[in-house]
Structure prediction request, 766 residues.
Amino acid sequence: AEQIVRLGEKRLLQSDADWDFLAKHLLVLNQNWLRFFAEQRRDADEHQDDYLQAEIHAAYAVLKASGIDDVSDVSKVIEKVAAIFFVQKSVNIGDCVQIAQIASKLGASLGPSFQFATRDNFRRSITSVIVFDPNGSLEGLLPDDWCKEHLLHQSYSAPFKSCTAEEWSHWVSTGRSGLSRFAQLTKKKTGIYGRAKALAELARRGFAGNSFQPFVTSNYAIDDWDFDDVLWKHWLQLSSSDEHVWSKVMEHVFAQPVPFWKSATSASVVQIASTGNMRSITHTPLVPDWILNFRDLPCLPDTRGFCRKPVDLLRRTPETESLIDVEPFIHGRFDTESNRPLLILLDVRSTPTGPDRLLNCLRALAKSELPLVHEVEKWYLRLDQMTNACSTQDLASITQALLEERLILTESSGWATGTSVFLSSDEDDVPGAAVIRRAVADLSLWRKIGVAERPTADRAIAWLKTVTWHEPLMTEDLRRIKALLARHALRIWNECGGWISLAGEWVPKESLSFALTLRSLVPWAHLHVGIKNRTANFQRLPFDLSDSPPFSKLPSLASRLEDRFNLTQTGFGRPERKAWITQLGAEIARISLDDGEEETRIRNLAAQLAYTVWQSSPSLEIVPYIDGIPAGTAKDADVVWLDNVLYVKTLPNARLAKLIPDKLGRAFIRPDIAAALSYCFGRSLAEITEYMEENFTLSDASVVDLQPEPTRVNREDAFGGAHKRPTDAPEQTEVDQADKTISDEDFPGSRPIPTEPDESPSGEPA
Prediction:
């Protein structure tokens, strides 16, 4: 009975040939006996045959006493066969394959007697490293000599007869076969002499604790795990021509069962006593050599397939979720729960190094005038995720960047700092406030960094106080400040002490010399930047504010600008006097006002208008001056009123009907006089007088003194004193001839104003 083995009903072999093979080396209990016993027991129970039941009971007692009452351990069965089969000096390779496939069919765990044939046609015990390479992927990764000695013979991958390919593959993967899928990590011990070297070895392996010295000797040793030196040498040679060799090696490591590397994840430095006793000098395990080596190699692929060092990669965790598509992550096929301990040993990170990468993405997008909104919102969502699990230091970095830098995209697609944006708007109190985009306004990120819920006048003014002087403002800020100035002009002027200049800069009010209002609007785009920065932009102020202190204390830009011709003008025709201009000047000079100073100013201008002559020209180019200094660049003009001469470009009368009143009206800076100029253009003297009497309070014409006569045309003054007449030029130009033909009698005050105009009501010559 000791020579007999019993195989289970469900573990029958593939064919009779397999039974015959085992029969040569093994005695197997005939399954028919067991079937017979089962049938007899069933019959005895059905017929209540006590005698038969007793016999069956006795038969099972014999099986139990013989040790074959249960299925024999197939592992012991195969070990018993292997002990007989492999003692032979010469064995056919086919028989070696057959017994291995039978063991696979039975699912046996092989013992030390079992042998496999390797590619050099030698039989080796499973105590040696024997590697099964089903697809030939290891042949190019391992040295040729090593492959011949350790790779399983190709015949084992030939047609499967005694088991199926699936059964063979499963058997190998369970480890019962004793075969490996890759070169094994082997334990090694290296001697060290001297405590200094031992401590240096601890530091190399990342040990930062306190070591101790159990003995007084200087003998130390490192208990370590690593691949064979032959393999390292071969991989280094391959890496010179194949940059992916390290990832291929590591991919095979991850493909192994966890026990392959689990027992090789720690090392220790031991001190050896003179008696031979050994004690570790640390309480915690150290990192083994093979892990240290792979930490410094590009051995792991990221999600895009690029090979990187482990420390450059992240694992997918709640803390790193926000950095997907920003930081490189390890490929998903390696980022598994079973591989996690090995990934931690390799220094694959599970927490982000900081928010810099996300913030840099926002900084890059903020440089674009038309950013991709969905991209910006995506990074806000990632930052919001990060703040849910980040450190206090990282949250401080995020807060500082978003509050101080223009990284927040507003609803109007502008960029702003966190201190200047709000979660919702209040157009009644603070118009034009920058509001965070609605799609991301609900993120907890904004409240964590301190973005205000709603704008208030106090917050807006506090923000204005932080705006840097004399720096061009961003479009978004300029729009916002202009809206605030229109709503809280007095508070901003008094509390902030600044205003917006024509150059679009925030400047101290002390640096302002002029003002531009809607009432005194003049073209200013061609003015020099210095003049623009000295001019306050009051265009959004209502008239009652701009006409009252402190805003009225600044002189209007229009009153200080003086147009001069850029170059000597040619092509002038004969100057002529327009009766409607002379009459209108005389009538305006009769206006009575409550403000004596304003009345004097208006009457002086009216006297100048009354003495003004009409000078047509094909082209006009002027330069603005302030206090005798050029204030801007030259520009073409349609109408110029200069030194009692109204220079008019040759244009259709319909267009002049708008240009001339507009030009003259800017000098008077009064809407009622501007309306009179528009109405009276080209009209008869009677109509002009009637209009003025109906719409103004006029003094008696006899008391109006239009003297002294304004100065005549001074050519050098008109041309900025920079263009002298050539010595060989004629004594008088066409303008000079015109001046001679117009006598003092042609100006009001020397003779009565004619009752009928010299031109038709349309303004064209009669």
Remarks:
- The longest strand covers residues 186-193.
